[in-house]
Each structure stands twice: as C-alpha cells, then as structure tokens.
Amino acid sequence: MTHKVSFIGLGVMGYPMAGHLARAGHSVTVYNRTSEKAQKWSAEYGGRAVASPAAAAEGADFVFCCVGNDDDLRSVTTGTNGAFGTMLPGSVFVDHTTTSAEVARELAVEAGNRDIAFVDAPVSGGQAGAENGQLTVMMGGDEKAVKRAAPLIDCYARMQARLGQAGSGQLAKMVNQVCIAGVVQGLAEALHFAERSGLDAGAVMDVISKGAAQSWQMDNRAATMIEGKFDYGFAVDWMRKDLGFVLNEARRNGAHLPLTALVDQFYSEVQGLGGGRWDTSSLIVPLRRLREH
Predict the structure, then answer these.
(1) 89-137 pLDDT, tens per residue?
(2) Is 144 an annotated catalytic residue?
(3) Beta bridge partners of 31
(4) Burial 100-137 (b: 16+ CB within 10 A, else e)
(5) Between the N and C ends of the chain, which has fewer C-beta atoms within 10 Å?
(6) CATH code assigned to 172-292
(7) b/e string for 178-200 if b means 16 or more Cβ within 10 A?
(8) The one catalytic residue among 173, 210, 229, 241
C-alpha cells in the first residue's frame, strides 16, 4: 500500500531515507532549509520539492522529519509555516531527529491537541545505515500510530521497536550514545596502549576482535583510527549535542554517569583541536598529542 508522505530535512540521513520511501513507491514531497538540496533530491527521485514545512505536510498521510536539534524541530512543526498547521486530522508525524525527551513529550501533547499523532523515532546506524536502508529505529508514542508508520519505516530500517510513550525513543537513543561513547574511549585507550608498547596495533586488533573484546567500533573504526583518518562517520559536534541531552536527562532522573561526563570532556578537547567535524573515533587524537608532549 502506498501513501502520500512528506520528508522534512534532507541532510546526510534524511536525503537517503526520503529516497528509500520514494523507491518503495510512495508519493514523496520534500522540504529542506537549503532549497537547492530539495531540488537536487527531487531531480534524483522524482518527488516534489516545496518551499515550507507547511506546504510539504499539506494533505500527507505521514510526515517524516530529520533536522538538527530541539529548536529546529519546533521551528518546522509549530513555528511559522510549520507542518502541524496543515497536517490532516488523523495523520502521523514521525520525527527521526535526535532531540531531548522533553521536546518530544511537548510536541506529542501539541500534536494530540490538533488530532495528529506524534512519534519520536531517533535512529542509529549513521550515514551508511541510512544509505543502505539498515538503520535501527527507537520509537516512543501511541502504539497504534507506531504500527501504522512501521511499514514505511521498514523502507530504511533493519530494526525498529516501540519502547513506550512519547519521549521513550529519545531516551533509548541516549542509552545508545552512552554505550558508544564508552566503547570508543576504551578502544582509543587500547590502541594508544598498544602503540606505546611497541606492538603492531593492527595485528593486535585482528586477534582480539575474535574474542570477548570485539565490538562494532573495533571492527569498523580501529583500522582508520590507527591510520589517523576521522572522516568516516558521526561528527564530534553531533555527539556532544547528544551527550548534552544525556547529561541533562541524568540530572533530572538522578542517574550517575561519571564515564559519560568524562568522555564528553574528552570530546570537548577534540573540538578544541579543531576536530568538531571529525568522526567520534577521533578520541584517540588527544591521547597521541599527550604522547608527543
């Protein structure tokens, strides 16, 4: 069954996600703050590009969104020419942005007041996952709305799950980022230790990756960390944004996250070295700088 859908935000994630929806046969209308990107997408996939979120959402059964942060999300939903103003009663807004749980709950209430369903659905898998249709999607919101959206989300997801009511998807994404931050810091220190010990770090990784130390980060980032290449994934600036959400939520719920707070500081050091756009595996850079001095 095909639907009339819209996609708001055509960054490195949204662009291919919207493309998967179009390839699946859905009628897709897109909006992007930089109109040239929307025109390019339209030329590539055959959908329609429009000048505002409101125009994109008009008449759509489902509105998908993947923008930058809380303020961006508020702007494209409830701001001037926002999508909520033109969405049909009974339609579903699926937000793939990584935001605070607070804004997800806020917009779920506002959507409900307008007879719209709001699903917070942050993703994990990075640009490659989006391009290959292999994302993991963590969702919060009304169970019926999630079930309605599920077949469309399947167009670009290998795994999707509802974790609870509004905000639960964002909280699950925070758990995801806590796990990643700790693993990457451990891998960076392990490689640094191997190098300082005079070992062939690559050979060590080949061995231990077949045992209990194995991780996605080790399999996909160890070799590029050894080479000092950091343009393969999720940017440090984005991770710091996400960890900011984590630490703010922890202050509210009383969770004690000493390692996460420490790794956030290490990412701040990377930013200070000009690495805000490097991928998150660049945590090894400050360690190597210490060695040099």
Answers:
(1) 999 999 999 999 999 999 999 999 999 999 999 999 999 999 999 999 9
(2) no
(3) 8
(4) bbebbbbbbeebeeeebbbbbbbbbbbeebbbebebbb
(5) C
(6) 1.10.1040.10
(7) bebbebbbbbbebbbebbeeeee
(8) 173
